[in-house]
Structure formats: structure tokens, C-alpha cells
From TrEMBL:
It comes from the Bacteria. Its cofactor is FAD. It comes from Aromatoleum bremense. InterPro entries: FAD-bd_OxRdtase, FAD/NAD-bd_sf, FAD/NAD-binding_dom, PadH. Belongs to the FAD-dependent oxidoreductase family. This is NAD(P)/FAD-dependent oxidoreductase. Pfam families: Pyr_redox_2.
Amino acid sequence: MERFDYLVLGASHAGLEALRAIRAHDAAGSVAILDRESVLPYSPTVLPYVVSGKSREDRLALRSRGWFDALGVDYRQAARATAVDTARATLKLADGKEIGYAKLLLATGATPAIPPIEGLDAVRFHVLRTLDDALALRDAAGAATHAVVLGAGLVGMHAAENLLRSGCRVTIVEMRGQVLPGYFDAEAAALVAGAFRQHGVEVLTGRRVARVEPDGAGCAVHLDDGEARSAGLLLVAAGVVPETGYLAASGVALERGIVVDEFMRASAPNVWAAGDVVRTPSFFNDATPAGGILPDAVEQGRTAGMSMAGDPAAAPYPGGIPLNTYSFFGRRALSVGRDAPADAGADWEVLTRGGGHDDAGYLKLVLRDARLQGIFGVDVLFDPGIMWELILRRTDLRERREALLANPEDTARALMSALWR
């Protein structure tokens, strides 16, 4: 049986960053990375652009084979795990082979969540999580005249715009009261939904699908109020769940994902985890959603890799801070951090400008004790990475909050420039 000093399962952002961190401290240890796909690693964030044709499937690779070779990493494709035996420190693959490890990183990401809708299993529907999904959706979009998208998260909204551009009439159904719930505040979401409606997309929020049934070459989507929509193409974009099916009886603790500590160590010995597969605390130590975004995956992968390699510079993962950028119909929405809770006390402050039909854009700052908690904007320029740093550093904005509202980009850059000196 083969055995490696470091075994990385999953080859997207978290796994790749972990490799870089491992090799930065340990140039000699044996390393293998197992990719369940048969193509070079890519980011799931580009898949909507594959559907639209803006990105070619042969130009998506995050890393070349030469990159792995230069690091002395054994990169293997089409390697899907079926079981982990932490007592024996082995990983079993779908082809029956076993691989031993001294240290294991689980970075298997997430898989589409399929809602329990009556009749869904009897009709053809699409999801969008892999390159194969994107290619299948692109091909189907060319033949459909009316598409129904279940879910108004980033995947669903991106896909809806691309389906519209392909010539489909599009209906979006979202069970929550706004589009992009969990990503943007209500005002920003209303501006996004308004833009979709202006372009002819039917946006139904606060609505549920009761059942679906076959209807000719497509299906009929029955809503909770008795109305129905005919769909030649049905896309289920109801979120994702961590890919943990291979961990049954492994001894790795699961609670809506792999439970990890501040150095991304799982409950089983010599096992780490990072990326969409983990459950991590929020930076804000509250119910704010954590994880599930690319910067978090990179940060978690770096933390895990440094910890695995015993790098003394390894720092605890600070917790998730939501960060999202979203382009739609030539416009841009940005969000970093959290909104104010409904029961916010006197220590909270919310500053806004614009909104509605204001051509100057919309901006909202959320502060607590004069420290930035969240920032949301539509058609207003600011650097999300710098805002993320201001939140992470708990920078006191008492004297600069009005300037930040008036000119967020330049004010934040000046603040960070002073902090970095």
C-alpha cells in the first residue's frame, strides 16, 4: 500500500493553498493530492461563465501539471474517496485501492442541496456545481424557451441572467423574502431584483414550489398558491451541503460539515479539513453565516497546510467574514461582513446613502462601537479586501465613518495605508 507524509483530498482553492503552505515549510515530505475530477483544478465560481460562453472550458485551470511537478506533488485525477479509516490512517478510493497517510487534509467541498419537492425525482433537472454540470446546462439552454430557476442565491441569479441571454424566458422562485438572502441587505437585493425584472425576468420571492410533474419535453412547476409555470429547463439552485458521505464511521465529527478547531484540525488524529466541507465559527461569534466563499477557503487552506507542516508561523483561523462580489447586467453589487440585527442596541449605527432610483448608487455601512461590521453597495466602488481587513482588525472609525460613507474607496485605502506603515 502506498503511503504519503501528506495526503490532500480535494484540488480546489483550499487544497491548492494548503499544498503551497506545506511546501513552504517542508520541501522534502512526500505529498499527494487527489482530485475527483478528470480535468485540471478549476474554481466553481467560473461555471456561470462557462454556461454563458464567456469562459472556455479548456482555459479554466487554476494550476498546470507543471506546477504540481515543480512542487514535487503527486497529482492524481478521477480519484474519488469512498471511506476514511482514521484508526489505520488510510483512505479508500472508488477503485478499491487504499492509500496511507501520516497527515490528511479533507478539502472535498460541497454538493448541491436537493430540496424535498414532490415529483422532483421524476423530472429532468439541472444543478450547477461541476464543469460537467455547466456544459450540460449550456447545451440545454440552447434548446429551451422557458426556464425556471429554484433559488435566488448567487448561482441561481448568475444562471438566470445567462439563461435570459441565451433566449429563454426565465422565472426565478425564491422561498425567502428577497433575492440573494444571506449575501446582501434588503435594499441592495431589491435593486438587484429590480434590474432583473426590468430585463424581463419574472422574480417570485416569498414563494415555494409545491410539486413538479412531467409536461411534454419539460415539466410543470406548481407553486404554493396554485399557479404553475411550464419549464423546458429546470435548474435547482437551492444551495449546497458539505461533501461528507465518505466519512461514515470514520471517527471524524460532523455537524453541518466537518467540525474543526482554530487550526483546522478535525476531531480525529492527524486529520485537518478546509473549504466548503467544514463548519467554522463566524468571526462575529454569532449566527452570521460563515464559510462558503473563496477567500475563506484560501485562508482555511493556508492555515491547515501550515499547521500540518508544523510551521511556527501558523496563526489561528479568525473565523468567517462573508465577502461577496456580484456582477449583473453590467452593474456590480458588493458585500462584506454582516448586517445589523433586528434587536440592535444603541451601540450599533447604520449609515446609508442612495438607493431606490438614485443613479449615484447605494451604500450602507453597519458599525458597532464605531467599528465596521458590514458594508453593502450597488454601483459604488470600494475594495472588498480592504473592507475585510478593516473588519478583521476591528479598526476604530469614529472619526472617519462619514468620510467612509461619502468616499469608501479612497477613505478605506488611506486607512489601510496608515495601518500598514
